[in-house]
Amino acid sequence: MEGSSEGVAAASPTLLQADGLGKSFGANRVLHDVSFTVRRGEVLGILGPNGAGKTTLFNLISGDLRPNSGTIRFDGHMLGGEPPFRRARLGIGRTYQIPLPYGGMTTFENLLVSASFAGNKSESAVYDYCATVLEECELGGKANKMADTLTLLDRKRLELARALAARPKLLLLDEIAGGLTDDEGRDLVELVRKIRDRGITIVWIEHVLHALMAVAERVMVLDFGEKIAEGPPREVIEDPEVKRVYMGIEV
Amino acid sequence: MTGFESTVRAQVRSQTKSGIAAMIIGIALLVALVAMPWWASQGTIRSVVELCCYIAIAQMWNLLAGYGGLVSVGQQAFSGVAAYAMFALAQNLGINPFFAVPLCLIAPVLLAVPTYGLLHRLDGPYFAIGTWVVAEVMRLLTSNFSYVNAGAGMSLRVMTQYSAHERAIGVSILCALMLLITVGGTYWLLRSRYGLALTAMRDNPVSAASQGVNVSRLRFLLFIAGAAGTGLAGAIYFMAQLRITPEAAYGPQWATVAIFIVMIGGLGSIEGVLVGSIIYFFADRWFGEYGATYLIVLGILTLIVALFARQGIWGLMSKVVDAPWFPTRRVLVSGESR
To answer: Across the interface, do B332 and A143 touch by the CB < 8 Å criterion?
Structure first.
């Protein structure tokens, strides 16, 4: 099952391949037979109403949850029972929908943790890179501020910066634009573009449609745990089924 | 390699003036501790040894609860088993008692491994109750174990080969080493790369795991280290007492005191433990004679701190002046300019 992707990414090799993923919590079926492919260097957007199983899909990839069925291949490895910390070291970085910073540490120290542990490097070897990432994410002036004193925008930036500090191959972004003003959202889109241009593959769950449309090469839509559409953003949002479930427009 | 080019030369500072001053004072205090037999009375030495043991046990409890999120009320299992192992090694097997102190730490470590295996799947309060059960089981087993004289307890008669002065020298040196290992060791750990992981784990174990931190292995290692450190304090305490009984060795007051010290002083900081230990020590000296009333006041004090000053007295102090005694913060000095 391949999406009709276009552009540069179509030619590059696969980084992540999910086949027939399913997850249930008791009788509650959250994901059912979801298959998709992410190519190196592309940005795949994921759309879907609340409860469609988007975050659960991320949890399966990051190892926070185990699938009931299906397989995930990442960077040539078949993923099995690896816990989250091991997947982070393999190069899967993620952000959480509700930012989970280390509140009692500074912004800079937050980055040191992921750069040193997920990145498997000594502490002093990551100082320069963490300082650079802070600059790139516009957190440079807040390096020594405690993370729990940051504003929402800065917490979202920190969530992203912390995942970036580990130099991930794949970055899973979970609703990083939600709750931001238009200007703040635009800044964030710029940042995601910049990250993509540095060779980091991105899967981005986002409700803020225009933000996603501005960056994603391909979009996948989930509804009630099933994939209902996949393809270039313009085509996908014109899909009558997507219009019906996602925008609430009856055809 | 994916990601940005490192364009910033970062300069990081992690020591402060207050930290250097505290280190000098700390070394001076350790020297004074070792020299105690030449300047202090027997009574003072006994009190100071007790204070040192409280600091060590509270520091280990702080490491478990403050960083690992492992709230144990049964650490007396480890201090008790270590002390008993030391008595058995010295009294029954004829090993030099001062040499038996480090040797006996095998016992708490051997006990901690299966204990953790059994309990680590339990959440917060269930874990706490589990540790208490382990301590009670150890007390009952020891009370029925004739090799260590069962419920009647043992005396460390081999110590009579040394004069009171020699004993004091030995115990003072052991105390200094114990503080160096428990307090100094914690400080060293927190300043190392693993300190970042421990602090991250303290603040948010879920995101720490997603950032490459092996949270479950770190918790296991903390539990083992906590058992060994608590065991060392138990062995030294009962060596100074020269007598041990199952009731004294496995009494719940050990855990109570550790919890009080850490809660009052401030959870998750080395300074908090020291502040809390000193408060407890003097409260016990000055008000201990009031018995039950004194304990009720201590309990109410803990409650007030838990409700209104979560970070303890050290937390309040550091809000007024930011002068840590054991700084662990990595301050990015340059590379901040845009």
So the answer is: yes
Q: Which of A114, A133, A143 sits opposite B212 (nearest CB)?
A: A114
With beta carbons under 8 A apart, name residues in chain A contacting B9.
128
Domain boundaries, chain A: 1-91+169-251, 103-167
Which 3 state secondary structure label does DSSP give A226? Answer: strand
Q: Are strands A43-47 and A218-223 parallel, antiparallel or unpaired?
A: parallel
Total-model pTM:
0.89
Please state, in angstroms and as integers, the Cα–Cα distance from residue B78 to each residue in A188, B75, B142, B242, following that order. 52, 6, 13, 18
Here the ipTM equals 0.87
Q: CA A164, CA A119: separation in Å to the nearest integer?
A: 10
Q: Span A1-91+169-251: which CATH code?
A: 3.40.50.300
Among residues B283, B332, B329, the alpha carbon closest in space to that of B14 is found at B329
| Rounded Cα gap, residues A204 and A187, in angstroms | 16
Question: DSSP string covering B173-211, please?
Answer: HHHHHHHIIIIIHHHHHHHSHHHHHHHHHHH-HHHHHHT
Q: DSSP 3-state assignment of B20?
A: helix
Residues B60-102 pLDDT 10s: 999 999 998 899 999 999 999 999 999 999 999 999 999 999 9
